[in-house]
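Long-time lurker, first post.

We've been arguing in lab meeting about whether fe (ii) ion would sit comfortably in this protein at all. Half the group thinks yes, half thinks no, and nobody has a model to point at. So I'm putting the question to the forum: if I give you the sequence and the SMILES, can you give me back a predicted structure of the complex? Inputs are below. Any interpretation is welcome too.
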Amino acid sequence: MGVSNFFILLCLILCASSVLVCNGGITSSFVRKIEPSVDMPFDSDVFRVPPGYNAPQQVHITQGDQVGRAMIISWVTVDEPGSNTVVYWPENTKHKHSAEGTVLTYKYTNYISGYIHHCTIKKLKFDTKYSYEVGLGLTTRQFWFTTPPQIGPDVPYTFGLMGDLGQTYDSNRTLTHYESNPSKGQTVLFVGDISYADHYPLHDNRRWDSWGRFAERSTAYQPWIWTAGNHELDFLPESGESTPFKPYTRRYHVPYKAAGSTAPLWYSIKRASAHIIVLSSYSAYGMYTPQYSWLEAEFPKVNRTETPWLIVLLHSPWYNSYNYHFMEGESMRVMLEHWFVKYKVDVVFSGHVHAYERSERVSNVAYNIVNRACTPVKDQSAPVYITIGDGGNIEGLANNMTWPQPSYSAHREASFGHAIFDIKNRTHAYYNWHRNDDGYAVSADSHWFFNRYWNPVDESTTTVDQSTTTVS
Ligand SMILES: [Fe+2]
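Top reply:
Settle the argument with this. Predicted structure of the protein with fe (ii) ion, as tokens:
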């Protein structure tokens, strides 16, 4: 073979291999049995009203400050306002503390809410189990939680991930699988779309109440970090409801003021070794808007020496290869992605698409209106994007994918499930996703994350496996 022929052959081999590399990642061959997604009826045991006059219900907790030394305790009473007091005490002590909260009600079309209580308890000790009690007289209820360790770069911490949960039988399976996972998270990062009350006429807000009772078995015992989804909008101007996010913001308080935010829809917290930024896909994010300006000021505050892991939660995914909500996140990506690359976000968790997907580290920030550079490219400064809107709500499964699988898509599967993001130290985190159809210990997708600040080497493990691209 002559030299020129050898180079031609070499070029052909390289071209062929680049085609393979440019092909997408893995589309799971697992095909979930298609079943109708229906909400559990109001008289289901998971929606049981706790016994006793005016007993607190729908108890949920979330971080109440920037660093994890405060907790917002929320609950609902239905017979009368009752007490706003939370009594709390660290394990193995007799001295009890108490804090006073506030109470509110709201109206939504023909619905009047119960008495919604919010109380922030402060100056908690790190890494300590606390018991707390809400209610009055004979109908008090007691719960417990564990505060996070003090913030530090090598503090291990485990986050659970769920999204688009709803209140169907599948939702119940997802939550049960999460609870029974041996590597159960210490805090849930919830990526939006909670109750799906808006599925019903006049957005039947009794479904907000039933969801609160359903999830209490987890939300009362570990903090859930809330992200607003489109099903939190409850925008119904034709019925007089023209205030977006009304039920959501009345029911789920977040520590946005501590994060310097002016609205509860975008904010940040630090927890253990993670800095978590929560954004709203359904609030203005264009230049000069409050959310844009807040994020512009927020990113430079992230101290990777203190909190190496930079995590962003937002509802509508930027990199999605399903034929559901395709490119809905595009305008937000165009506005904000350059910061995600500049500040080396480790991972972005989204929901909205009712299936599972993990991306390669890609960015698409080169484009201007004349250069045609509009294809996502591998970028080791870019986040991994994970879509985990697979909680199992009433709208059913997203099982229609784009073909061929785009090169940005590393792994995708149309199933319901939850995930765990397990931070080991400043350099490594182990992530795995569990589908509901398996036993709890089975991991259907896993990935070692290498921190973008401390260990920014390519951790991609995707190889093109032709045998797995069989779902139609
Ligand atoms: Fe959604």
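For your lab meeting: Helices lie at 3-22, 169-180, 206-219, 246-251, 290-298, 330-342. The longest strand covers residues 428-435. Whichever side wins, do check it experimentally.
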